[in-house]
Design goal:
This protein has 574 residues and is mainly alpha-helical. The chain contains 20 helices and 2 strands.
Length: 574
């Protein structure tokens, strides 16, 4: 019995253990399924999070890329603007680094003076380097390029507006070509005269070569001094004879105004080129005195540069002589064509401005008396056309023409102007407006005057620079228009020096606004007075037998300004 009971207990215990095992396995299976479901849900959640993160990253990438594009555009614009100052910055860094090696950090005043003068007490020389014109760099910024396009469209619309008005009102179209046809008359004779001028200037090289080599033959300094004085007199005689003959030819052949201006500007350019070549090469000829052998000399020790260097300098768009200039690798003919097309377009547009906006204001002067009120209206009515002509002339000559000639000659230094439109003082404007002429005035007048004549008296050197510039401008205008009316001379010599002192301590914004105001008013007054005198002499001609006829303004004496409030001719005729 006991054995049967034990066996029953064993079977019941086994059955219960089997049930426990099956229940445990079922629990493990359920836990596994639950964990599996949780893993699936977790994976799905992670996938959704990953998708959301990818979306967020893509949005961030787009936002960052857009902001980077804007930042890069702004940076490129700033770099282009900063490229304007690369000469000054390099000079500043070079001078400051040399000063830091020679002086202690406490000597700040000495370092500032070293930025203006070199350690030998001389002013720094002009440095040539490969660089673009400022507008060329600015036009690579899309914002500035768009402004250029808008300005071009405005000019086209203004032209179409006047053409359509003429066609509807009068039945004919006036394209404004008469100033070009009348101004550039006798063009073939002008080219012939320019060729004669070029040949006469080429004679300077053999004469200078002869002087440099003959002076080495003399054994005593006394003969050398006599020879040098005779040579200096010869150069001065050549320059004076050259200017006199060109002016007499222009007057004798009676060139029209535009042709006369072109010839007289070329005359001035040749005079400046000759002076630059002679002045730059005299020191090397003097330094080689007594040295008869040229063996084992470096290239810069040659007494006289080659004729090829002289010839290249005559055509290069610079007035400061160097044996070598930075050069580009090739000629980009597309750039030449584009700039020449701009030159033609700007000349046409300036002619259009004169024909449609300036000539109607002044073509009756000298033919009848005018009231003072109408004179004031004509004066102020010419401010905007004169300012627009001023900007067009700047772009035509200093940007388009100089860049086209530089491309043809592979001349790499194309900083013909700086950002004069941002100038806050008249002195800054003078230095930035025409860098080509400013470099010549600085190198051969201001620098030589400070170092050799006035002995560090900057004020007198500045006055001399302004006087030379005023004389050059007045000579061109006086003989081009056949009368002496020193409006530009007064503006340069007196108003220019006065504005230099008045605008030097103004704030940036105030100085820039005042500068632009004075430029617009000055250009308007200058354009008005010269046009009034020009048309007065056409409508009321003088005999021209004496010098007084060219010195006294006809507009003051022949049918001048009256106090009658009405014109003597009708407004319709005007």
């Amino acid at each position: 019995m006991s054995e049967l009971k034990n066996s029953a207990d064993d079977s019941s215990s086994r059955s219960s253990s089997n049930e426990d095992i099956s229940a445990e396995s079922n629990g493990i299976e359920r836990r596994a399924q639950r964990e599996f479901k949780e893993e699936i849900v977790k994976d799905m959640a992670i996938d959704k999070m990953r998708e959301k993160m990818d979306t967020i990253v893509q949005k961030l990438e787009k936002d960052v890329a857009r902001k980077l594009d804007l930042l890069v555009d702004d940076l490129v614009g700033e770099v282009k603007l900063f490229n304007l100052k690369n000469y000054e910055l390099r000079q500043l860094f070079r001078d400051s680094s040399s000063a830091s090696l020679q002086r202690s950090a406490d000597d700040s005043n000495s370092r500032r003076s070293d930025r203006k003068r070199r350690t030998d007490g001389k002013l720094p020389d002009k440095v040539f380097m490969a660089r673009n014109s400022l507008l060329t760099d600015l036009f690579e910024v899309k914002h500035i390029k768009t402004i250029y396009h808008i300005f071009l469209v405005i000019l086209i619309i203004m032209f179409l507006n006047t053409v359509v008005h003429d066609f509807v009102d009068r039945g004919s179209i006036n394209l404004g070509l008469r100033p070009i046809v009348a101004g550039f008359g006798k063009f073939h004779t002008t080219l012939a005269l320019w060729g004669c001028m070029q040949l006469s200037v080429l004679c300077v090289y053999p004469c200078f070569f002869l002087w440099a080599h003959v002076r080495k033959i003399f054994k005593t300094n006394q003969y050398r001094k006599i020879w040098d004085l005779c040579s200096i007199f010869g150069v001065a005689l050549f320059q004076c004879s050259f200017v006199t003959l060109v002016i007499k030819t222009v007057l004798h052949l009676d060139f029209p105004p535009a042709s006369s201006v072109a010839v007289l500007m070329e005359m001035t350019r040749f005079v400046m080129k000759v002076h630059a070549f002679v002045r730059s090469n005299i020191p090397r000829a003097l330094a080689s005195s007594g040295k008869t052998s040229t063996e084992d000399k470096p290239p810069h020790a040659v007494i006289v540069p080659s004729f090829g260097k002289f010839l290249y300098f005559l055509f290069a768009p610079t007035l400061v002589y160097r044996d070598e200039y930075p050069r580009t690798k090739r000629i980009r003919w597309s750039v030449v064509f584009r700039h020449m097309l701009e030159v033609v377009g700007v000349i046409f547009y300036i002619s259009f401005i004169f024909e449609r906006f300036l000539t109607p204001l002044f073509d009756r002067f000298g033919g009848a008396e005018i009231s003072s009120g109408k004179f004031v209206l004509a004066l102020f009515g010419s401010i905007m056309p004169a300012s627009l002509s001023f900007l067009c002339g700047f772009y035509c000559l200093l940007h388009a023409w100089f860049n086209a000639s530089s491309e043809l000659l592979r001349f790499a230094d194309r900083m013909f102007y700086r950002d004069w439109w941002n100038a806050s003082s008249f002195a800054e404007y003078i230095r930035s407006w025409n860098v080509v002429v400013h470099d010549w005035l600085y190198t051969y007048i201001y620098k030589d005057s400070v170092e050799h004549v006035f002995k560090n008296c900057n004020a007198l050197a500045t006055v001399l620079v302004f006087t030379a510039s005023a004389v050059f401008h007045e000579v061109i205008l006086a003989f081009a228009f056949r009368f002496f009316y020193p409006v530009m001379f007064v503006q340069f010599e007196f108003m220019g020096l006065l504005l230099m002192f008045l605008t030097r301590n103004l704030s940036k914004d105030t100085g820039n606004i005042l500068l632009w105001f004075m430029l617009c008013i000055g250009n308007g007054i200058q354009m008005s007075l010269y046009n009034i005198e020009y048309y007065a002499r056409r409508n009321c001609p003088v005999s021209g037998e004496s010098l007084v006829d060219y010195m006294i303004p006809v507009s003051w004496t022949c049918h001048g300004i009256s106090h009658n409030p009405n014109w003597t001719f009708s407004a319709v005729e005007y």
